[in-house]
């Protein structure tokens, strides 16, 4: 997957569109591929909720792009527009693996010590053909619930995701763009994965 194949946030920001429009034909919910995609996303969430970052790393394609553009608040004609060149994070396989190694193999990952207790709820999964065999554009919504320390309050982080998934013998995440619903995130840090 090349950067050109990732949804063009810039063009959509200039036109005032909040989220990318699917580019291909939708896969029916009764299609076995749709069931496989939903099962993959549920299994991925379970890995992350159980803090199995090494297992999650095995789901990433070597050319992954993992990013979250900054949301801006503008006048009512352009509500929900995302920046085209500013990101809360913009990662590739190397930076993701370095962070995972730091979290799993060192004592210096203070942001997650002690570990957060999380639940990821993935829903509204819609899959579309991309035109490449075995590759799918998947739109979904996610709500992250996170509890930290002994604080009785939950951190709630809602977002929409656009993934490029590759099927075959194993499913892999080739791209993930996360569109947070909040312009100012109500969480202490982003030391978690969505």
TrEMBL record:
<keyword id="KW-0223">Dioxygenase</keyword>
<dbReference type="InterPro" id="IPR000391">
    <property type="entry name" value="Rng_hydr_dOase-bsu"/>
</dbReference>
<keyword id="KW-0560">Oxidoreductase</keyword>
<dbReference type="GO" id="GO:0019380">
    <property type="term" value="P:3-phenylpropionate catabolic process"/>
</dbReference>
<dbReference type="GO" id="GO:0051213">
    <property type="term" value="F:dioxygenase activity"/>
</dbReference>
<dbReference type="InterPro" id="IPR032710">
    <property type="entry name" value="NTF2-like_dom_sf"/>
</dbReference>
<dbReference type="Pfam" id="PF00866">
    <property type="entry name" value="Ring_hydroxyl_B"/>
</dbReference>
<feature type="region of interest" description="Disordered">
    <location>
        <begin position="1"/>
        <end position="28"/>
    </location>
</feature>
<comment type="similarity">
    <text>Belongs to the bacterial ring-hydroxylating dioxygenase beta subunit family.</text>
</comment>
<protein>
    <submittedName>
        <fullName>Aromatic-ring-hydroxylating dioxygenase subunit beta</fullName>
    </submittedName>
</protein>
């Amino acid at each position: 997957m090349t950067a050109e194949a990732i949804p063009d946030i810039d063009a959509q920001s200039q036109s005032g569109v909040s989220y990318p429009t699917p580019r291909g034909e939708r896969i029916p919910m009764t299609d076995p591929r749709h069931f496989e995609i939903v099962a993959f996303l549920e299994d991925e969430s379970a890995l992350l909720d159980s803090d199995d970052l090494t297992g999650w790393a095995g789901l990433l394609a070597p050319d992954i792009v993992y990013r979250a553009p900054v949301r801006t608040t503008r006048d009512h004609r352009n509500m929900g527009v995302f920046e085209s060149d500013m990101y809360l994070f913009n990662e590739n396989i190397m930076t993701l693996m370095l962070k995972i190694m730091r979290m799993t193999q060192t004592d210096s990952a203070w942001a997650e010590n002690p570990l957060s207790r999380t639940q990821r709820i993935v829903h509204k999964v819609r899959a579309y053909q991309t035109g490449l065999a075995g590759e799918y554009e998947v739109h979904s919504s996610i709500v992250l619930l996170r509890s930290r320390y002994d604080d009785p309050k939950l951190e709630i982080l809602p977002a929409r995701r656009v993934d490029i998934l590759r099927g075959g013998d194993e499913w892999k995440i080739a791209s993930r763009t996360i569109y947070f619903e909040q312009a100012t995130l109500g969480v202490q840090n982003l030391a978690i994965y969505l």
